[in-house]
Predict the structure of Undecaprenyl-diphosphatase.
Amino acid sequence: MSTPGPRTLAHAHHPSWRRRRLDPDHSLGLRLTLAATAAFLVLVPFALLALLVLGGWAPLHRLDATVTDALHGYALDHPAWVTLVRIWTEVFAPMPLRALALLVVIWLLRRGARRLALWVTTTMVVGGLIGPLLKLLVGRDRPDLLDPVARAAGYAFPSGHALNAALTAGVLLLVFLPYAGRGRWRVALWIAAVLVAVLTGLSRVALGVHWASDVLGGWLLGAAVVAATTAAFTSWRAHTGLRPVQPAREGVAPEVERHPGAA
């Protein structure tokens, strides 16, 4: 009966990179791999959309122009509606949303949830830096309307309002899901997060300061950043021996509700 050689023993103690990535018991195993894959899959549609915008794809431009013309015509005929949309887009602008996230970070720090506070900060900062950089790289002009109801400076793609709304809605949803319990409160929290992200993005198209694809790009990029940072945070959880979680159902740190200092 043959005994395993040194190389075989070394392989048994040091499994291949592929086996470690697919090993559920490894700290960077199956769950992290699936989470990172999810983040990548969200980023792929954004990358394809960005390429279409950079290439000036005619069908996308026609669709953008059709949506903008329809909403702009409605805005010109309904000034009260324009006022309401302006209020919404100011209340949920990037700076107020970042201030809200900062308040949540301070609240988490006071509760001793330092790593969770770091996750919120990292998500907002990473998204906040990537957005302006991509605007410069893509260099897309905003809609140029004959009779605009609102104006905005800078480049268009991706929409900063849509991006920051998606970031903020995502982090607040995943922070506060443990407090929502089960049933209707959890559903209500999900609905609130989606509505804030969707309506904030649509307000920019309604005011004629962004193309519809700018807003879609902001949503996709925000979702990709949240997915990526969530993957990193759940990796840390696995490394410290905490039980695996389903972020969409439990949030990223369900133990923070009962034991704040553990997050």
In short: DSSP finds eleven helices and no strands in the chain. Confidence is low (pLDDT under 50) at residues 6-15, 20-28.
